[in-house]
# Entry
Amino acid sequence: MSSLRAHYSHIVLAYGAGLPFVLPALGSSAIPALSLVHWYTGHPSNPVPPPLDKTQHMTLMGHGNVSLDIARLFLSSSERIAPLDIPRDAQDIMSTSKLEHISIASRRGPAQVAFTAKELRELLNLPDVSMSPIDPRLLEPPPGGASRQQSRILDLLRKGSAAKFGTTKKTWSLEFFRSPIKPIEGGVEFGINELDEAQRAVPTGETETHKTDLVVNSVGYRSEPVEVNWYDGALGRVRQSGGRVIDSEGNVLERVYTSGWAANGAKGVLATTMMDA
# Structure
């Protein structure tokens, strides 16, 4: 950065967020969602294929759009996958899949999910696949009322999947208020959470074990720290205020700006940070 600043009057950091967040409790025992996406999109990094021929139960950590995309694809039939722009070798491996159930877990509740109503609707309408019903008590509006997006999602979850649960071989479920504590043989140990007044997840002290064959870490992405003194490691983005970059001591840098996911973190859709441009 020092060499750039010597030759340019202004710098805008708009390089996105291309590194996956890692859940420390799971470490290397979980496959990064980005690795799976790279695999079935034919990315030149050529990641190792998932062991779908040995996996009956998959657990996706994170209630975001990427988790729902992966679940929809991996629960789809070979006939639905065939017309898609997916490399033939990946389709061949998918055709050997033994997958019957996908659990999608996160630390907070239905009103705090990060996925959109559109992505949820597509998964709910997937043919020959059903969602495990959710306890109606979890689908009550949050204190203070629900936003339009929250209301749409809660309504969809109340209605459930197009295919009735119990009538399909392939199923999926949304698990709420769960944070991984550690991997165990054949599964994961979870801590049970509740929400405090600020709607933050706090542990109750209770735990449970969750049997699964494959864990996928899908809790979001972070920006690369191109300049350590400008980087907020906890939020995974450039430290900034109003688009102006701030150093670790809180000083505003002259003529250095940031935009998009690099500035705001990897969240939402394109329109979420479009105004930064």
Summary: The two ends are 21 Å apart (CA to CA).
